[in-house]
Amino acid sequence: MKKLIVVVVLLLVAFGLYWGYGYYQKVFEPNTKLDKNFELRVPEGSSFQSVLDTLSRRQVLDNVESFKWVAEKKGYPQRIRAGRYLIKPGWNNNEIVNKLRSGAQDPVKLVLHDISGVYELAGKLGKKLEPDSVEFLELLTSAEKLKTYEVNPQTATAYFLPNTYEVYWTLSPEALMSRMRDEFYRFWTDERLRKAREMNLTPVEVVTLASIVEKETVKPDEKKEVAGLYYNRIRKGMKLQSDPTVIYAINMDHPTRTIQRVYYKDLAYSSPYNTYQNPGLPPGPIKIPALSSIDAVLNYAHHDYIFMVADPEQPGYHSFATTLRGHEINRRKYINWLNKNGL
User: Looking at the chain, which residues constitute the CATH 3.30.1490.480 domain(s)?
Assistant: First the structure.
């Protein structure tokens, strides 16, 4: 009888060890085929099956069934959390499930740089974040929705200052707009606000002027000079007469049209953004300017120039003038160069 008891005990121990090892394998042994981090995106409204399908299709797991078993034991199928998650090489099922179940997202780096307008901005955001471009565009062009942020469709892009931001992939358009407004106000230090007040411009107007400056010159060392010229025109009550504002006005209505040169007939194009037709600054930025362009406006060069035209002898730079006569001389030189080169 004692022998039988010993045998039964040994069998139970053996079974327990076998079951325990099997449990350990399923829960704690590495279960990935990865040699680098895998980015798993779980859209809002996803099912457990769709997560499994993605992991299977992308060959992330060594053993899909063991992952499924652990996930079900930990209640993950009932707690699917949308987000972007990085699964690392060597992770076990317990680590993967805990990550996904907790909703501990890994942020994305949202790079905003050299963006021309609201349509390009919405497209870039839609490619980088879960909400699509239409959702971002609906917010950025809705006067009613933007009231919440004390912003309007013409000025909304001014708040998207160029930088690299860490945000969650699931960030809603509304939450992003709120974040960008906070970043905007953070950028405007007391010193920058003081300089804007001395120019009798609001922060948004400074950004708008900076967008024109950046479109007019590609040379960083010329930005302050150009900023000073346009500020002189503003102070004198002159129309800015900036070609890039004409191009922007036309492209707002005809986004696919490519404009290489502004002709005289284009100057009459009807739009509040056309600074040949309207005095002062346009209603909002014609692009998202670099921070250096904003600071160039705030630290504009003090001079008497009110005219400029591209300098054919220094590509990328401009010839400046204080009088219409001097400007006509510079302009004729540039037009002759254009005609000579068939442009």
Answer: 24-102
Give the predicted TM-score (pTM) of the model.
0.86
**DSSP track, 220-281:** GGGHHHHHHHHHHHHHHT-----HHHHHHHHHHH-TT---SS--GGGGG---TT-TTTSSS-
d(CA 49, CA 72): 12
Looking at this protein, which amino acid is placed at residue 73?
A: K
Judged against a pLDDT cut of 90, whether residue 254 lies above it is answered with no
Please give the CATH number for the structural domain made up of 24-102. Answer: 3.30.1490.480
**Number of other CB atoms surrounding residue 242 within 10 Å:** 27
Place of tokens 């890994």: 106
With beta carbons less than 8 A apart as the criterion, state whether 308 and 226 touch: yes
Is-contact 121 136, C-beta < 8 A? yes
Predicted confidence (pLDDT) per residue in 103-126, tens digit? 999 999 999 999 988 999 999 999
Read off the pLDDT band of 22 (50, 70, 90).
Answer: low
> If you ran DSSP here, which 8-state letter would residue 321 be given?
E
